[in-house]
Each structure stands twice: as structure tokens, then as C-alpha cells.
Amino acid sequence: MGFTRPDEKAIHDAVGDLSQLPVQLQRAFTPDREIFAPIPTPSAGDWLAIHKEQDQTFEKFKASRSNRPDATRHVIYLQPLGEFAAEHSPSIEKLREFAAAFFAMDVKLLPPAPTDGAKFPTRRNPLTGNTQILTGDVLNFLKSALPPDAFCVLAITMEDLYPEASWNFVFGQASLSDRVGVYSFARYDPAFYGQSRAPGYETLLLRRSCKVLAHETSHMFGLTHCTFFNCLMNGSNHLAESDRRPLHLCPVCLRKLQWSIEFDVLARYTALEQINRGAGFNDEADWLKVRIQKLRQE
Ligand SMILES: [Zn+2]
Ligand SMILES: [Zn+2]
User: Fold this and answer.
1) Which of 71, 84, 255, 287 has the greatest number of C-beta atoms within 10 Å?
2) CB 52 within 8 A of CB 1
3) Catalytic residue among 97, 159, 216, 273, which?
4) Looking at the CA of 229, which ligand is closest?
5) Residue 151 has what DSSP assignment?
6) Do the Cβ atoms of 125 and 168 come closer than 8 Å?
7) Neighbours of ion ligand 2 (CB under 5 A)
8) Tens of pLDDT along 70-84?
9) What's the pLDDT tens digit per position in 237-264?
């Protein structure tokens, strides 16, 4: 299944007409090749080697009429599910802060829900023997208690998940129309694979968790997988591919999210730089610093 990298014209068509926008948004959405890396050519086993993605240009995104935050539904809720043991889990508060900066929206934590009991019956994975929760049970639970001001509710968990009996596992699952999703960080911990937790692994686990949260939550706004640049919204088939994705959006995806949420791009980048620096994501913070300078230029 051949994937062809988009050429200059395809990229400009994807971003769309910027001429009517304020100058700062024009700068933010200009596909600057010095700052935004091209989408990697897929190798065997990579997402684009296996999946045929439909290109979603900015205009196609607008035409999809996906959910947008409004006066009624404007809060992203995170629902911790089960234990987040401090020594081998990402900090929930750091995830909340990251999401709040990334989406420039209110992000609130719901009281943690226990995974034991009748609500979430578990199974033992037939191959690995580890405990797993059925995603459908979690989505039904979230749907039954959707807060009236929720743009979406996302359960996050360190438990491993499966979507149906015949599957080995799944990283997560969502229903856009029901505004609910569930994501597991269990498989982002090297210890899950029997590997040692090397020094600095807390930063690695937090980075992976922030990345999956931002990627999956962006899907809730109707963004599909990006086929234009090396981008947070690239599809990913395995951990190495997921690690290769940046923590930021390309200009096409940024324009989609900004159109949906209507945030101030400079204020968002400034908040994100601070959060990334604080979290120890120094490469990303440096990248944001360059972007901020660029947007401020006269
Ligand atoms: Zn995705
Ligand atoms: Zn993108």
C-alpha cells in the first residue's frame, strides 16, 4: 500500500486559504519547512504501511461538522480509573495541567473510580496472564454519568484494556458521538515488557502519557490522523512509532484545533512552553520557544 508524501501544493491545499486571517494566525499556520518536519516515509509495520488514511484537509475538517466546545459543553473531564501508584504512574495533576495548556480549556478531574467490584469485571489475558478491563464497560459507565458541561469525559488508567474477547489488548477506545473515551498508560511503562526502569523513566512515562492524551483527545474534536507532516496526529502502530511522533501539532492540525476551540495561539504556546519545561520535556520546550519568537516577530 503505497504512501506518497504530499508535495508543496498538497500541503498548501491542506492548510487552506490564510489570506483573510489576522496576521498572527497566518504566521501560526504557515507551513514553515524549517520548523515542521516532513512526515516520515513508512517502514514495514508502521501505521501508513498498513492503513490507508484519507487526507483530512482543513476544509474537509470544517465540513465534517464535528463537536465544538460551546457555552453549554466546554469542560474536558479526566476520570482516573483504578490506582495511579506514585512510583510507577504519571502524575494525574501533571496530565491535567498539560491537557489544560494543550487545549486551552478547563480540564477537571473527576473523583477516582475504583476498578474492583461488579462494574468492571476483569479477565486474565490468555497470552500474558495480566489483568485486563473491557473498554465497553468503561465507556458505558462514563456515558451514564456525563456531566452537563462536559465537552468530553476521558477515563485514564494504569490497567490494561481489551475491546472484545478475541483481541489481545487495546491502548484505548472512544466514542465521539457519546463524548467518551478510555486510555490506558499500562503499556508505556518499560516494566510492562519486563524491561528495567532506567533513570529518567518517569519523564519518559509522563511524556508518553501526555502524548497519548493529547492525540486521543484531539480525535474527540474530529481531527483524524495527519498525513501531511511529522505530527502529534500521525497514526501509530507500535511504541517506537509513537515515540517518534512529536508532542506538537503541524500547521494543518493546529488550524483545525484553533478553529474548533478559538484559542489565542501565542498564549497557548506560552503556557505550553512553561508546562513542557516544568515536566522536563526540554526539546519540546525549546521548539515552542522558537515558535513563540516567530509569532512575535514584527
Ligand atoms: Zn489516533
Ligand atoms: Zn498534523
Assistant:
1) 255
2) yes
3) 216
4) 2
5) E
6) yes
7) 226, 231, 233, 250, 253
8) 999 999 999 999 999
9) 778 888 889 999 999 999 999 999 999 9
